[in-house]
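Render Thioredoxin 1 in 3D.
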Amino acid sequence: MSQKFQELIESERPVLIDFFATWCQPCKVQSSVLNTVKENVGQGARIIKIDVDQYPAIASQYGVRGVPTLAIFKNGELLWKESGVHDVNTLTQLLKQYE
């Protein structure tokens, strides 16, 4: 997964990574928010979900201490990272800003 993850974040368009856990209630809320964000940004950005229990090495590599944690990458560079649940407008604006 690590090699594939590296390829994902090397993208020319912004990639929002949702670090989540299946047992996490706020993560479920964030997931439904991200569905709307995806509709808003369309092909302008990608949204990828990473289960921290399945891929702890990736979570650890990017300093994920709690879930949900969202991170935006472009051309392999971490542009933004924050923990907690975020709203549709904030995330849509962030992704459009990095397009």
